[in-house]
Amino acid sequence: MVYLDNIAVLDIETTGLDSEKCAILSVGIVSYGEKLNEFYKEYYPFDGAEIMEASMEINGFDINKMNRDTVNDPKDVVEDIRSFLKTNKCNVTAGQNPSFDRGFVNKYAEKYGINFILPIWMLDMHSVCMAHMLENGIEIPKKPNIGLFLSGDTILNFVGLGTEPKPHNALNGARYEFEALCRMIYGKSVLPQFSDYPVPARLVR
């Protein structure tokens, strides 16, 4: 069975929110074409990267303890992602906020002079969940002064996965997002590590 055919869930951890100034610290990718395919790698930040304390608390990295070996070179980020997508025949990326990840990856391609960009076609968990709620007359959560608001953990709870463990890990994040998408689209659990988390009856098909 193929799940999310030609689609790879991509998740990155960064030193901050600004793709112009901040660095990618890790990349996690999951796809499922006949079998499960996963990728995870950590990268040290480029010199002069802006580091936001709030982001470091979320991802749990200690910049001073990160390996600065050639295998962790930031210039390899784009080629590693491109290689995974090509090998697994994926041309669409997915996730909770795939435009964030796309912005960073494409900025890295520009920074290191690599002729590659992630396509604009993306599948985001937020839209899939909101569409499901609207179709089934389920009230979408709201946040004061913002309006409709679906956080990642809210969606994970909606699909029966609870909240994602902290600190946030890119591969673990990609796994949770892949499983959440599959539960909403196929109505079943796909990844073995989530088999103990029952799929809510409202999603089962």
Strands, helices and their partners?
Elements: E1 7-14, E2 24-33, E3 35-42, H1 53-59, H2 77-87, E4 92-95, H3 98-111, E5 122-124, H4 125-135, E6 142-143, E7 147-148, H5 152-158, H6 170-186
Parallel strand pairs: 1-4, 4-5
Antiparallel strand pairs: 1-2, 2-3, 6-7
Helix pairs in contact: 4-6
Structural category: alpha/beta
Bin the helical content: 25-40%
Multimeric organization: single chain
| Major sheet strand order | 3-2-1-4-5
Characterize the main sheet: 5 strands, mixed
How many H/I helices? 6
Instruction: Write down the CATH topology.
Output: Nucleotidyltransferase, domain 5
CATH homologous superfamily placement: Ribonuclease H-like superfamily/Ribonuclease H
Cα separation of the termini: 16 Å
Principal-axes shape call: globular
Tell me the count of domains: 1
Series of H and E elements: EEEHHEHEHEEHH
CATH architecture: 2-Layer Sandwich
- The whole-angstrom Rg is 17 Å
The residue-averaged pLDDT reads 96
